[in-house]
TrEMBL record:
Belongs to the bacterial solute-binding protein 1 family. This is N-acetylglucosamine transport system substrate-binding protein. InterPro entries: Bact_solute-bd_prot1 (IPR050490), Chitin_NgcE (IPR022386), SBP (IPR006059), TAT_signal (IPR006311). Keywords: Signal, Transport.
Length: 482
């Protein structure tokens, strides 16, 4: 398994062999009305605390007696890493009240009234299924420019600016239009096809580096009563975590850039068609775990850790999130998208990796300096190591792993990044156009296709329509790769 030598002469051949059809269905789409509501609310108090004195120990000028309020998304990474960093904040500013901390999975619904009323928290971990649309928030000037944080001395080395301590691409992800930095992505996420090395070894198999080998392994597993794939069917926008880099590998990163830029006919690119038809074949051949379209992310991960399916598209937070059900000998690992055939534009190993867990400071935060200082503390080596040890994920701090014993999943992430080299792609739809990515492309588009209720051709046509509508929508701000 894993050899590409048997397929060097295939060219585009296998793509023309994948021809399927299915009845078109419809899935209920959750409302995202908050996205415009929270971004348009301009009422309420705009009273900020008085800025403190700027010193070498207080480079951002934090008011040493002012309160600070933080809201954390309580998902795959939990909240303890943030609580620990907040303790460091209170140690640095003992005259300030204890940091007011809250954790929730309901970011959108719980913070909507506060954004509308002009009284948002100072620092928000804007993540999860109810993530607020950051493209809208940026476009409506609801976020604070974090450039002062980026230009501040780093926590460990005053000779280095914070921006110089970040992993490649993290700062750029927070920039939507020019130089301002609107978002601080704290985690560094490796996306891909996650699997158990132990379960592959039970089948005397290795991770499939070609799509034909992927299908062959799925067929082998099916004979043993094991599904090839599962995914969060209720949140099928997880599928792009492996599907988007697959598209980029087949057609080149420019295909993904055109999609991000909402260019006409971007979704009609042959690379999209080939990738969609390949994934659709998983459904056609019965290689997807029965009942997957009705599973949440936790339920699908649980089925996967129980060995009911070999592969799941996900991000590197999955190790921590799935820990309660993961066997000790699971040997969790991540793989890059398999090669479709010899004509792929990018080599095997091409992966999607980027900043994750987006932290924002609302423009109407009462203590913006305190919020930025909290982030500066989080971007210290000590806090970064604490994060990595607790949640088994890399942070945005470029380091923080020295002396640590990495799990198989984390080591796997480090290894695939090393193998990818410069072949790391970073699609921006999920932070530029959240509604388009989640509700339309994910749920109404790809989700319907993978459930067998729409063909690849029908899905591409539908998604292109969604993208065209978004491109013409003058109520939202549009972004392009620079």
């Amino acid at each position: 398994m894993g050899s590409t030598s048997a397929h060097n002469n295939e060219g585009l051949g296998r793509r023309s062999l994948i021809k399927r059809s299915a009845a078109l269905g419809l899935i209920a789409v959750p409302t995202m009305s908050f996205l415009s509501a929270c971004a348009s609310g301009d009422s309420g108090s705009d009273e900020k605390v008085t800025k403190g004195k700027t010193t070498a120990k207080n480079p951002l000028g934090v008011n040493e007696t002012a309160a600070l309020e933080v809201v954390i998304f309580n998902g795959g990474f939990g909240e303890q890493y943030a609580i620990d960093a907040e303790k460091k904040y209170n140690e640095a500013f003992p005259k300030a009240p204890k940091v007011k901390h809250a954790a929730t999975q309901k970011i959108q619904s719980q913070l909507q009234p506060r954004f509308n009323g002009g009284t948002p928290p100072d620092l928000i971990d804007n993540s999860g299924a109810e993530q607020m649309d950051m493209g809208v928030l940026v476009g409506k000037k609801q976020l604070l420019d974090l450039t002062p944080l980026m230009d501040a001395p780093s926590y460990d080395d005053p000779a280095k600016k914070v921006r110089d301590t970040l992993r490649p691409g993290v700062l750029e992800m927070g920039q939507f239009d020019g130089d301002p930095v609107w978002i601080m992505y704290y985690a560094y996420t490796v996306y891909g096809v996650w699997y158990s090395q132990t379960n592959l070894e039970k089948l005397d198999s290795a991770y499939p580096e070609t799509w034909d080998d992927m299908l062959a392994l799925c067929a082998k597993a099916k004979k043993k009563g094991i599904a090839g794939w599962t995914y969060p069917g209720k949140y099928p926008y997880y599928l792009p975590f492996s599907l988007y880099p697959f598209i980029g590998k087949i057609g080149g990163r420019e295909v993904l850039d055109k999609i991000d830029n909402l260019e006409p006919n971007a979704w009609k690119d042959p690379a999209v068609k080939a990738a969609f038809e390949a994934y659709y074949e998983l459904f056609q051949k019965g290689y997807i775990l029965k009942g997957t379209p009705g599973l949440t992310h936790i339920e699908s991960q649980t089925q996967w850790t129980k060995g009911k399916a070999l592969f799941i598209p996900n991000g590197s937070w999955v190790e921590n999130e799935a820990a309660p059900t993961t066997p000790e000998d699971f040997k969790m690992m991540v793989g890059a998208p398999s090669s479709l055939d010899a004509s792929d534009a990018l080599p095997y190993g091409t992966i999607w990796a980027s900043g994750g867990e987006p932290f924002i400071v609302p423009s109407k935060a009462k203590n913006p300096e305190g919020a930025m200082e909290q982030l500066r503390i989080m971007l210290s080596e000590e806090s970064s190591k604490n994060f990595t040890q607790q949640v088994k994920s890399l942070s945005a701090f470029n380091g923080g792993t020295d002396g640590l014993t990495l799990s198989t999943a984390m080591q796997s992430g480090v290894d695939v990044l090393k193998k990818a080299g410069d072949n790391v792609v970073n699609p921006r739809l999920q932070d530029w156009y959240v509604k388009l990515q989640k509700e339309q492309i994910g749920i109404a588009g790809i989700g319907e296709m993978m459930a067998g209720r729409a063909t690849p051709a029908e899905t591409i046509k539908k998604i292109q329509g969604f993208a065209d509508a978004a491109a013409k929508d003058q109520s939202i701000k549009h972004y392009k790769h620079q």
